[in-house]
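As described in the Methods, two query proteins were run sequentially through the folding procedure within a single session, without resetting any intermediate state between them. The first query and its resulting C-alpha cells are shown here.
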Amino acid sequence: MGFFLETLLGGLMAGMLYSLVALGFVLIYKASGVFNFAQGAMVLFAALAMARFAEWVPLWTGIADNRLVTTSIAFILAGVVMFLVAWTVERLVLRHLVNQEGTTLLMATLGIAYLLDGVGQSIFGSDIYKIDIGMPKEPIMAFEATFPGGILINKEDLIAAVIAAGLVILLTLFFQKTSTGRALRAVADDHQAAQSIGIPLDRIWVVVWCVAGVVALVAGMIWGSKLGVQFTLSTVAMRALPVVILGGLTSVPGAILGGLIIGVGEKLSEVFLGPYVGGGIEIWFAYVLALIVLLFRPQGLFGEKIIDRV
C-alpha cells in the first residue's frame, strides 16, 4: 500500500506540472479561439530570461551573497520581459489579424514560436544554464509510522506542485470572479459580438498573453530548476498536449484534472504494467489516452460541446 501511495503522489505532483504548461494553451485559446503553438517557445524564452538574469543581477548589483534577493529580482525582470513580449505580439501581430480565420492565427503562433526561439538564442545564448531557486533536492521519508518503510517524497516536486496549484487557483478565481475574466470568456465565444458591446479586443489579448507569459515564466522556472535550461525545454509543451486534449481546450479546471489524470496514469502504468510489456509505457501512455478521448468526446472531458445550427 505504501509503494502504491508513493507512486500515486509522484503522479499527482508530475500532473500538476503538466497542468501548469497546459494552462498556457487554454488561456490563449479561451481569448483568441486559436491553439497557441508558441507556448513551448514562451516557456523556453521565460526560463532563459530567468536563468540569465540570475547570473547578471549579481554583476550589476554586487549582492551575490543573497540568493533570495537575486532570484526575486531575476524573476521580476523576467516577468517584465514576458509582459513586453505579450505587448509586442499583440501590437505587431494579433492586432492586424482581428476576425481572421483560425488557420491564419494558428500560423501566426507558429511564426511567433520560431521568432522567440531565434531571439532567445541571440539575446541569452544557447548554452545549458541552471536555475537555482532554492528548492531542496533531497527526498524525505513520510508516514513511517503508518506504512512499513514509509513513503519517499521528492521535496522539490512537492514544492513545485504547491506553487503550480496556487497559481491554478488564482487563475481560476480570475476567470470566474473578475470582470476581465468574464470579458475573456466573451471574446472567446465571439470576437465580433464582444467588440459590438464595447469589449476592447486589443486590450483583452494583451491581458491574456501577459497572463500566459507569467504562466510560462513559472513553468519555465520550475522545469528549468528540475531539468536545466536548454533548448530541448520547449518540448515540455509537447507533454502538455495530451493534457489539453483530455481536459478540453476551453476549460481551466479541465487542464488541471487532465494533468492529474495523465500524471497518475503514466506513473501507475509504468510501475505496475511496465514490467510485463518491457517498459516504456510512460512515453506513450498520455498520447494513447488522448487519442481514445478524441474518438468518443472530441471536445475533451470538460470542454464545451460545440453545436452548429444550420
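Immediately afterward, the second query was submitted; its sequence and C-alpha cells are:
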Amino acid sequence: MTIPNHLLPDENDARLRVGARALPASQWVSEVDEQWQHNIDLKKSLLAKQHDDVVGCVAGNDDACEEAARGIADSLALKTEENWRGIDALEQVVARVADDVCILTINAESVLVLSAAVLCAPNRWKLADKLGKPMDAVHAPVARYDTDLARPVDAFLNRLAVDRPMWRTNWGIVNDPMFFQPVIVAATPNMDVGDLLMRVEYQTLRRLSVSGAVMFTIRTFQEQLSDLVARVPRMSAVLTQLIESLPDNVAEYKSIAPYRESLLRWCSQH
C-alpha cells in the first residue's frame, strides 16, 4: 500500500496545529483509488465479527446520523433505502466507503461531543471510551493538546461553516500493520526500522446543514518506511527533521520514542 504524496508530512509537521485546508463542497469522502476496496473488505470483516467495538451512538442522534448518511450516499450515487434510520443508516453507508465517520453534536451545555461513529481504523483509542464525551476528554491522551490545541480546535469547530468543509492530516509511525488498532501496541525496539510503517490519516470536517452537527471522516493510509523512502527519497530528510524536532512528550505519545535513535541512524543511511 502507498500513501498519496499530497498527504505525506513535511518538515513543519512536528509542530502541533490544526492545519486545516478548504475542501470542495461536493467531496464528502476520500477519492476512490486502488486501495478503496481493501478498506471496505476490512470494514465488512470487523462489522461482522466485532460490531460493538466499531459502531456506537448516543441516544437522540438519529437525525444527524441519517443526514450524514444521506449526504454521503447522494454524493456517491449510492442506492439507499427509505426505511434507513439513525445509526443503522450511517453504518450501511460507511460500510460502502473507505472512510470512517464520526458525528459530533452539541449537548445541553452547548459543548460538542462525540455522539456517533462507525470507526474501523482507530489509532490507539476505543470508541466505547470516547462516546458521549466532549472534545477535551476525547483528546485527553494527546500530548500537549490542552496547552497547544484545545483553543484552536474549539475555535475551528465553532467557525466551521456548512458551505466550507475542511480537510487536514495526522501522521505517526507504527510497528503493527493492522488498521484496527484500538490500543497501543507494545514497542518492538529490535524491529528492523525499515519495517516500521508511516500511518497517515486523511480527515475531513463539515457542518451538516439541517442538524448542525459536525461530520468528521477519517481515511487511513499506511506504508512501510523502506518502501516509502525508496519511492519518495526526500522523505528520509523529512523524517530526520520531524524526529529531531518532536518534543519528547509528543514522541512518546506517537510511540516514536522507543525508535528515535535507530530511526535517525536509519534515515542517515537511506
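The first helix runs from residue 36 to 49. We note this only descriptively and draw no conclusion about the first query from it.
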